[in-house]
Amino acid sequence: MKSPIRLASAMAAFALIVTACSGGGASPSASSAASQPAASEPAASASAEAGSLLDRALAGEFKGKVITALGPFTDEDTVKFEAMVKVFEDATGIDVQYEGTKEFEATIGARVDGGTAPDVVDFPQPGLLANFAKAGKITDLNKFIDPASYKDNYNPSWLDMATMAGASGDIMAGVWERVNGKSLVWYPKKAFDAAGYTVPTTWDELIALQDKIKADGDTPWCIGIESGAATGWAATDWIEDLMLRTTSLENYDKWVKGELKFDSPEVKKAVQTMADIWLDDANVNGGVKSIVTTFFGDAPVPMFANPPKCWLHRQGNFITSFFGDGPVAGTDYDFFYLPPIGTELGKPVLVAGDIWAAFTEKPEALALLEWYTKGEHLKPWMAAGGAIAPHKDADLAWYGSDIERKVGQIIQEATAVRFDASDLMPGQVGAGSFWKEITSFISGSQDLDTTMKNIDATFPQ
Q1: Closest CA to 310 of 329, 289, 285, 342
Q2: Predicted pLDDT at 50
């Protein structure tokens, strides 16, 4: 049962979308053999005379059609998704049938292999989408959605990350819908303000704050990377953020592909920058030895002791779910953007998020993806909480919480964004040797050179 508030928000969003969406279609193009629609389903057409696919959907041309959708969000997120997509259904008469699964990777693989791929799919890992794109399974959206209708609504970095190798050249493999910011440092605001500390805006100021906290007899950082079989991922996030702050975007992208070795000076510099903070007992709550045994969700909790046992915790916006019901956002805690190191690399932000792709050329399905390129469509979910918009036209006033509004602003103001590298690397590296070997380095069981060489040895040739 969807709440009246959510439905009211949804209807308001629809009214604005109908006003905002205007024509500008791409010329029709031949489809790839891998994504041919069934004979009874007409291929999408976006002729200038007919208007864009979204225009045609809003005009009722596809009323009664059904779109099958698959994604990783379940439970409460499914409720929020359905409240949001009801706007599209009410506006177009199209039925979007969503299925959520907690076994997403296995499920989508089985569906594609079995010839029963859904029309549209929400990928939380663009690396997995890239595999399907390379195999020729994914529809090139630029053939059916005019790039001019959305390219100015995204930071170019989002479009760069959505451009992937297809079976016979690069394609626009998907559209980004909702995202998460990772380049954030959380702190106990009430105690922080009472201590007279100031939010740093440069790396030098961050290190000066760290040293001031130590001079006051306290411990600056709350750090923990234990996560069962995934132990180490929290450390790789730090390294990814530091790669964005110490070398170029081009080098970051080469690193993801294995073209820039872990044993290179650029990657070792990022790891060493992290090590300069982490591998000092005075900097870490519980000392260095506690890092690999402290559950990542428990790591920030000592910030809320009285007095705080540690003061700074770098983590994505999801971490607030581990704070418990006691601490109040904006009063007991707040966050700031992890500062850049120097100015030449701008203000990059490490992100995660959802990219929607199509396994079909059905016009109603592609109209839904065109709808996703408009920030307005996400308004109900932004109000309900749990969605950060990558779109430039998303109004910060639409957020239902100050915390998410601030994250949204940081992402909007970023000079560049890059996806979590370990999620883009081959599985045996990103979710394997990278996590494992960095954990060994932090625990002190091996040196940096050995760690980097061991990871490089697992990259597929």
Answers
A1: 285
A2: 63
**Contact of 86 with 2, CB cutoff 8 Å:** yes
Exposure pattern of 339-362 as b/e (b: 16+ CB <10 Å)?
bbbeeebebbbbbbbbbbbbbbbb
Query: In degrees to the nearest 10, what's the CA dihedral of 346, 347, 351, 354?
Result: -80
Q: Could you give the angle at the alpha carbon of 350 between the alpha carbons of 381 and 336, nearest 5°?
A: 80
Per residue in 88-110, pLDDT (tens digit) is 999 999 999 999 999 999 999 99
Q: Report how far apart, in Å, the C-alpha atoms of 60 and of each of 35, 88, 99, 147, 367 are.
A: 25, 11, 24, 23, 12
Among positive and negative, which fits the CA dihedral 179, 183, 188, 189? negative
Residue 258 per-residue DSSP state: T
Least confident of 32-46, 274-288, 320-334, 384-398: 32-46
Q: What are the sequence ranges of the domains in the chain?
A: 4-180+352-419, 184-349+423-456
Please tell me the total number of residues recorded for the chain in this structure.
Answer: 461
Q: What is the pLDDT of residues 282-333, one digit of tens each?
A: 999 999 999 999 999 999 999 999 999 999 999 999 999 999 989 999 999 9
pLDDT above 60 (res 23): no
Helix, strand, coil tally for the chain in percent (to 5)? 45, 15, 40
Q: What angle do CA 30, 33, 34 make, to 5 degrees?
A: 125
Q: Between β-strands 334-337 and 348-358, what pairing exists: parallel, antiparallel or unpaired? A: unpaired
* DSSP H or E stretch at residue 243: helix 233-246
Tokens of 340: 């850049």
**At what angle are helices 126-134 and 104-113 packed, to 10 degrees?**
10
Q: Could you give the 3-state DSSP secondary structure of residue 17?
A: helix
Which has the higher per-residue pLDDT, 35 or 62?
62
Q: How many CB atoms lie within 10 A of CB 391?
A: 26
Please give the CATH architecture assigned to the domain spanning 4-180+352-419: 3-Layer(aba) Sandwich (3.40)
Domain 184-349+423-456 superfamily per CATH: Periplasmic binding protein-like II (3.40.190.10)
Residue 424 has pLDDT above 70, yes or no: yes
Contact 425, 245 (CB under 8 A): no
Q: What does the block give as tokens for 222?
A: 């709350």
Instruction: Give the C-alpha separation, 455 to 443, whole Å.
Output: 16
